[in-house]
Task: structure prediction
Amino acid sequence: MTDTFDFVGSNDKPALIAFSTPELLDSTKVALQELGYKVHTAATHSDFSTRFSQVRYEVIVLEELFGANVPEENLTLRALQQMPMNQRRHATVLLVGNNFQTFTPMEAFQHSVHAVVNTSELFLLKQLIEKAVSDNNNFLHNFREVQHRVFTSGTQN
Result:
């Protein structure tokens, strides 16, 4: 785990990535940086948990085999899947692996993520991240609007 922790300002768009494969890590990092995200990298499962609990990440890109030999051993994915929605609603989660058909809604639902991406299509990652974030924002728009109205009406009293 890194001793230094990047400061995240109010205008930053934070993203967290967790990969065991250096090539996938590099291409994902570049795609997110080109989209204007401030990228943090988790080296281990505990590093991911620590970072996720300290920052409200807008995007999370996770490798299916992060720190594991088989998907069932991916402790980070299991932790995200078991986490209550109110603790992870702020993040759009993309899962990258060799066994997925990119942007298959049922596979994403099965893994409790917003989108799945096949590693062979990482050259499209920038567009896929934009689409997943946009779809998630559209889905949550009404919820966030009501939440904002309730909050602002409560502070005016």
Observations:
- The radius of gyration is 16 Å.
- The chain has a mean pLDDT of 90.
- DSSP finds six helices and five strands in the chain.
- The first helix runs from residue 22 to 34.
